[in-house]
């Protein structure tokens, strides 16, 4: 028996520190936009190698607030990966802009830089680079394209806290980055939470207002803002966990390496990690045309699994009102990818139980 993911086991090593953090906030009598949030913002900005961090309510709001901060809206187009969680697309839709999907590289599952230029039009304002499954997108190529066409580069780093590209961390690889602290992410809160990182002083100042009713002076509203703030309790919990993120990401790397070694040569496609990229393994995704057989086998062995994602964004009922371009890679992936259990707490025996079950299922 190996569960796909136990959040209880993820948080167990932090239980004492979390309880102390919660007690501190309860006793402070201050629950929104206070010391814990501002301290976490500083600590997370430093961690990412960014100048500013703005705590917000969730990852989706982080993305849509960044778009608003860059004045992207009606009439504008934003390039998005076809293979991503729906939030990447929804943020673009929410601000009134048009998501323009680009298919992924069939090996990395991240947006294929070679297909981006064909999707650029005079209306294109930005590219959202998603570091999917915890692996940074090909930022060097994406940045070069963006510079040639005068586009903004936004990172969706919701699955990539701590991941590195050419020695720099996610959150410092574009003009601004969106993070989620949804409980299942590599750095997870005990509820919803999110953050934006950027080096842009003016953007940061504007986002601090936009997240708080468009206000920096109480009851004076300069812009039509929203209510999307990381709260003091979640910030305190995240502060307790952040110092251990690197060690937990290392534990995930060890699990991923064991999977790679034990499944080498198995009739299954393993993740491909290009040179210069250091993923944090939010998910460990394998690919096979015999996915149903693999699922039956895993079930028989008591091994948890998930599919990320079973329906591509353009194939979602919510997006059925539009005609989308052909996206053959995303269409194939939705039927063939499968995520194996990965978490910092997994033992070598757990991982071996998974790899034995995978091999037995496909033999
Ligand atoms: C989780 C996630 C989001 C959204 O984060 P929430 O905090 O759930 O709103 C956005 N993009 C990606 C790639 C994600 O995995």
From TrEMBL:
The entry's keywords: Aminotransferase, Pyridoxal phosphate, Transferase
SUPFAM superfamilies: PLP-dependent transferases
Domain of life: Bacteria
Signal sequence range: none
Residue numbers bearing the N6-(pyridoxal phosphate)lysine modification: 185
Active site: 185
GO molecular function, one term: transaminase activity
Pfam families in UniProt: DegT_DnrJ_EryC1
CDD domains xrefs: AHBA_syn (cd00616)
Keyword presence, rRNA-binding: no
One GO term (biological process): polysaccharide biosynthetic process
InterPro entries assigned: DegT/StrS_aminotransferase, PyrdxlP-dep_Trfase, PyrdxlP-dep_Trfase_major, PyrdxlP-dep_Trfase_small
Family the entry assigns: Belongs to the DegT/DnrJ/EryC1 family.
Protein name: DegT/DnrJ/EryC1/StrS family aminotransferase
Organism: Rhodoferax aquaticus
């Amino acid at each position: 028996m190996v569960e796909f993911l136990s959040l209880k086991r993820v948080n167990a090593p932090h239980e004492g520190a979390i309880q102390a953090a919660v007690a501190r906030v309860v006793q402070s009598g201050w629950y929104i936009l206070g010391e814990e949030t501002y301290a976490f913002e500083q600590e997370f900005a430093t961690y990412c190698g960014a100048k500013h961090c703005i705590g917000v309510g969730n990852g989706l709001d982080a993305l849509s607030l960044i778009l608003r901060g860059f004045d992207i809206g009606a009439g504008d187009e934003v390039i998005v990966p076809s293979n991503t969680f729906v939030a990447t697309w929804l943020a673009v839709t929410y601000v009134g802009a048009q998501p323009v999907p680009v298919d992924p590289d069939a090996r990395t599952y991240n947006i294929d830089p070679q297909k981006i230029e064909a999707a650029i039009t005079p209306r294109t304002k930005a590219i959202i680079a998603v570091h999917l499954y915890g692996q940074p997108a090909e930022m060097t190529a994406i940045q070069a394209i963006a510079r040639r066409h005068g586009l903004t580069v936004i990172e969706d780093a919701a699955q990539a806290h701590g991941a590195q590209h050419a020695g720099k961390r996610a959150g410092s690889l574009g003009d601004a980055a969106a993070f989620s602290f949804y409980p299942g992410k590599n750095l997870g809160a005990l509820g919803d939470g999110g953050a934006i990182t950027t080096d842009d002083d003016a953007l940061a100042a504007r986002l601090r207002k936009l997240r708080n009713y468009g206000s920096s002076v109480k009851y004076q509203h300069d812009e039509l803002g929203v209510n999307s703030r990381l709260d003091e309790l979640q910030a305190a919990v995240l502060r307790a966990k952040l110092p251990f993120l690197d060690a937990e990401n290392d534990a995930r790397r060890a699990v991923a390496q064991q999977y790679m070694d034990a499944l080498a040569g198995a009739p299954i496609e393993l993740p491909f990690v290009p040179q210069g990229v250091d993923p944090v393994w939010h998910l460990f995704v394998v690919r096979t045309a015999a996915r149903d057989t693999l699922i039956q086998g895993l079930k028989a062995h008591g091994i948890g699994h998930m599919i990320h994602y079973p329906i591509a964004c353009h194939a979602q009922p919510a997006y059925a009102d539009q005609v989308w371009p052909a996206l053959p890679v995303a269409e194939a992936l939705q039927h063939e990818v499968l995520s194996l259990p990965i978490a910092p707490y997994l033992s070598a025996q757990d991982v071996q139980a998974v790899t034995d079950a995978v091999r037995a299922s496909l033999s």
